[in-house]
Structure formats: C-alpha cells, structure tokens
Specification:
The complex is a heterodimer of chains A (about 100) and B (about 200).
Chain A lengths: L6 H10 L13 H10 L8 H26 L1 H4 L1 H4 L4 H5 L2 H4 L1
Chain B lengths: L8 H9 L3 H22 L6 H14 L10 H19 L13 H12 L9 H12 L4 H12 L4 H8 L3 H28 L1
Helix pairs in contact in B: 1-2, 2-3, 2-4, 3-4, 5-6, 7-9, 8-9
Classes of the chains: A mainly alpha (about 100), B mainly alpha (about 200).
Chain lengths: ~100, ~200
C-alpha cells in the first residue's frame, strides 16, 4: 500500500496500527448494578434533544388548542366575509347622504 | 455485530420485557463488549466509562419495547450507544486548544516524523499516534469526531456509518471532508506554534 502524502492520512494510518484492547468481559457486578438500577424503576436522564423535542411537541399542541379556541370565540371577527350577508342596500348605504 | 452464539437474543429480550432480572443481567453481559468498545472510542473527557456504559444499558432497557427486530439487535444497541456518547460530547461545550508544549514526548516525536520525514513512521510509534489523534479529535465537534473515528480510524464504510448514525451518505461525506480539512489545519497550526515556542 502506498504511503499517503497527506499529513492527516499519514497520522491516521499510523494510529490504526496502535494495539487494540482485547475483547473485555463486563467487570464483576456490572450487570447486577445495571439490573438493580432498572429494578429500582430508574429511568435514563433525557438528552437535550429529547427535552427540546418534548417541549416542541407540547408547544405545538398548545398552539393548536389556542388556535381552535380563538377561531371558536372570534369566528365572526376572523371570517367576516363568510358570515355577513350584504345586500344592495348595505352596499349603497351612505350616512352623510342620508342626512 | 455483537451477536454471539450461546444467547438467544430474541428470547432473552422477551424475558427482559417481562421484567426478568436474570435475563437482563445475561443481556448486559452479552452486550458489554460491544458497548464498551463504542464508549471507549467516543468517551468524552473526564467521564467515567462505566457510568456511560450503565447509562447506555438503561436507555436500551427503557426503549427495548420499541425494538421491532427490523435490524440486528447489536446494530440497534450500537445506535443507542453512539447517540448517547454524542449527547455527552455535545454537553462538553469547551474544546481544548492544543499547543506543542501540551504534547507528550512521544506525541511530539510522532508529529515531527509525520510533518518532516519523507519516510514512513515506525510502527512502534503507533500508540503515541493514537494518543495524538485522540487529542486532535477533541478539538472537533462531536459529529465530526464521530465521523472521523468511524471512517479514518475504524475504516468503516460510508454506508455503514450512515446506517449507524441515521445521517445520509452525502452528509457523512461532507462532514468527513470538512473534519479532515480542520485536522490538517490543526496540524499546520501545531507546526507554526512549535516554531514560535
């Protein structure tokens, strides 16, 4: 195999030749400690992304509920065009002229 | 990956889901070599490897119900382990800036050989090279560290890394390209600092 010219590749190639640790069995009592934590009902700490995801989902749910609530309470304001019925009289109504 | 004869993982998992503690212990013993290998490759500074391994196993058990058997269990556990290590690396906001004086004698010799000798370095310098690479990787972002370790040190394929990380193959290649560029700059920077020290 030819020697790489790039310094990083040279270093990485040399580092790959470093002795690898032998396959290792679990230290004494490790499995029991994990099992005990699990039996004790301990749950793993959520990661930052898990927390962010949970908050995002909750925010989405809250925003959805608020949107529905606003639409429900202010339906007439939000959609005047759908609820108001215009007549020819409304369209030609002019209060100044009336006076 | 990590699937050894002597333990029926599917049966063991079914028993684990039924809160069988003996099965949980057997599964931990079975998966430990796989998990500790990943932990050691990606261990953040100043963090105990056993603590991190325990955390990974807790996540494996907490999410065991979500495992559907679409990929080998070892692959699934690897992914949990890698993502846990990445989370821990992300939590370490400060990244070191190495100077020539921070390198051990062996590491400095390796670097000197790499930078100035046209000949191939001697294999006896491999352990020091490994230490030096570890230091250089600490200056990268967690994602860059991960991709370089898997691609350049463990010589895994891009497709394999994409499977393990959940990233696209293009993203893996782009990250590797940028990370290598940063590492080359680091080496140049160390060389410049040496001249000034």
């Amino acid at each position: 195999m030819s020697e790489p010219k790039d310094n990083w590749q040279k270093l990485a190639r040399l580092a790959r030749q470093a002795p690898k640790p032998a396959k290792e069995a679990a230290p004494f009592g490790f499995a029991t400690r994990v099992s005990a934590r699990r039996a004790g009902g301990e749950t793993p700490a959520p990661s930052t992304w898990d927390v962010l995801e949970a908050f995002s989902l909750r925010s989405l749910a809250v925003a959805g509920v608020l949107m529905v609530a606003v639409l429900f309470t202010s339906y007439d304001v939000a959609t005047p065009g759908w609820t108001q019925q215009y007549t020819v009289a409304d369209a030609t109504f002019d209060p100044i002229f009336e006076e | 990956m990590g699937e050894q004869p002597g333990l029926d993982v599917a049966v063991c998992l079914a028993r684990v889901r039924e809160r069988d503690e003996d099965a949980a212990r057997a599964l931990v013993e079975h998966l430990y070599p796989l998990v500790i290998k990943i932990v050691r490759a990606h261990l953040p500074r100043r963090l105990d490897e056993e603590d991190l391994a325990q955390e990974i196993f807790m996540k494996v058990f907490a999410n065991a119900a979500q495992y559907r058997g679409e990929v080998p269990f070892g692959h699934w556990v690897s992914r949990v382990a890698v993502s846990t290590c990445l989370d821990r690396l992300r939590a370490q906001k400060r990244r070191p800036e190495w100077r020539w004086a921070d390198l051990s004698e062996g590491e400095a010799q390796v670097l000197d050989t790499i930078l100035h000798n046209e000949q191939a370095p001697h294999p006896s310098q491999a352990a020091d090279a490994g230490e030096l690479v570890g230091k250089l990787l600490q200056t990268l972002s967690p994602e860059d560290q991960l991709v370089i370790r898997l691609l350049d040190l463990e010589e895994r394929s891009v497709a394999d890394i994409a499977t393990q990380t959940g990233w696209s193959q293009t993203l893996v290649k782009v990250r590797a390209f940028r990370a290598r560029r940063k590492l080359r700059k680091q080496l140049e920077q160390l060389e410049k600092l040496k001249r000034h020290e």
